[in-house]
Predict the structure.
Amino acid sequence: MKAPPRLQSLIEEGLIDTVVRQLMSGKEAMVFVVRSGDDTRCAKIYKEANNRSFRQAVDYTENRKVKNSRSARAMAKGSKFGRQEQEAAWQSAEVDALYRLAAAGVRVPQPYNFHDGVLLMELVTDAHGDAAPRLNDVAFTPEQARAHHATLIAEVVRMLCAGVVHGDLSEFNILLAHLPGADGEEGTDGPVIIDLPQAVDAAGNNHAPRMLMRDVANLRDFFGQFAPELLATQYGPEIWSLYQSGLLTNETPLTGIYAPEHTDVDMQGVLREIEDARAEETARRLRMATPT
């Protein structure tokens, strides 16, 4: 097919050779299947801010930093240049997250290049080499649902240990891919996480706990359709509690049970503190009223 204008620069730079077809058009981007040498990859073209339904909500962009102080000032003022810089920062958020998570061993598409607002990355495929389906297009047995849910909970933990919360994780941005086996073993189907422009820093965003809880709840609700016992699990608060306590690692065993600790309030101690504060305030007023 004829290359869209946004992909023409990648052809001119030698990053891709041909455009095969359009794979999808979503709320944030259009994705095309492309050829690069002997490899088939996908190219994600981000939509301009005024052409996409996903907005740069404060929840997602909170505490996102830019290294250039001029850019930061312009973004704060909301100037035309600032809006351009904010758009570039939003696009690069997914690129940064993909490289970070791929290095941490998280099941995400392998990124290859980011050029002129286009992300070139691995095409995630099924056992036949076709584009892998999204989870929402697949039905599962209870056993499959439990297995994929466990895998994805482990991936959420791996992401969190790498300092990232997806922020919009659901059955609509997880692909069921064919994963090659090790040392000649037969491959199996497994989930691959995609769509990360809204990923947030776990330690630097005040909304990260709520986003992680929502991500995990989405997984619970989807797979709970096939394995109803999953609906009673509470992995979200359990994971975040362990993370906050510094006890979460990729190997930490999880139960799906969360019982928050309730500390008995020392009412006598509280009353003593109140009385001490009152006495101190009375003494202060007396000192102020006494002539020197």
Q: What stands out?
A: Residues 51-56, 70-76 have pLDDT under 50 and may be disordered. Helices lie at 5-12, 58-61, 69-77, 80-103, 142-161, 208-223, 235-244, 267-289. Residues 80-103 form the longest helix (24 residues). The CA atoms of residues 60 and 198 lie 6 Å apart.
